[in-house]
Amino acid sequence: MKKSWVFAMLVLSLLMIAGCSNVKDTESLNQVSLLQWLTLWDYYWSKTIKELKWLWNIGLWTFDWLNWELIMLDWVVYRANDKLEIEVPSDDEWIPFANVTFFDNDEEYELKDIKDIASLKEQLDSKVNELWDNRFYFAAITGKFNSIYIRSEKKQSEPYKPLAEVLSVDQTEKILNDVEGTVVALFTPAYMSDLNAAWWHFHFITSDRKNWGHVLDLNLNDASIIWDYTDNFKLHLPDWKFFRSLDLTVNQDEDIKKVEQWQ
Q1: Annotated domain spans of the chain
Q2: Is CATH 3.30.1330.80 the classification given to domain 26-260?
Q3: Measured on CA atoms in the order 47, 49, 55, 61, is the torsion positive or negative?
Q4: pTM exceeds 0.85
Q5: Is 125 helix (H, G, I), strand (E, B) or coil?
Q6: 176 - beta bridge partners?
Q7: DSSP string of 14-66, one letter each residue
Q8: CB of 58 closer than 8 Å to CB of 227
Q9: CA of 72: how far to CAs of 2, 190, 202, in Å?
Q10: What is the mean pLDDT of each run of 10 residues along the chain (263 residues)?
């Protein structure tokens, strides 16, 4: 009997150890590389899509060579093409920069009367101030949008232009009317401004998974919002010779503002 009990405990311990290797970290924002690296026109690989999806199920940003915008939702990675329609790239494609996490529901309520993106930011900022503005947040805003103005940048080739210049000459824009979908919103605290763009970043995808892009403006009457509070941060730096030699002390505040603001 004693030997059987010991054997059972040993098997249970091994199963727990095996399970722990796949435990999802729901409380960390994972960042692949630096936005400052991206704005300095280094659009080379850091991680594959397969690696992004290993333990994370929601995320934002772009593809290798700045090959259109990226959104991850429910472990599926989507790309906007030159018509801002949906493509699903293969798992072996590379990502130069991304913010991803395992999304869980920390709070849910209804948003009302969002006239434009400024009023959306105002409501979201009010909630952040109520909670704690020194942590990270992902939010999923789902509803029917009266209108939403989206964009995506075009794939680049060498010699690369800086990101702010790309967005001034090489982006596609579209306005969608009376469309259902989800805005994925990322809040990055101000003290992270040397590693990422502080405050809010928005991507949108339609419920039918036919259109999506970076959000420039929107209008909606009401929508549900789910918040994921994230207190930890993990930075994944690229193992790439150009990154190791790049001067990241250059102040890029103005370029980052151009990237995030209305184009």
Answers
A1: 26-260
A2: yes
A3: positive
A4: no
A5: helix
A6: 148
A7: HHHHHHHTT---TTEEEEES-HHHHHTT----SEEHHHHTTT--EEEEE-GGG
A8: no
A9: 50, 24, 12
A10: 44 40 74 75 74 83 75 88 84 88 95 95 96 94 96 70 64 91 96 86 94 93 96 86 64 59 46
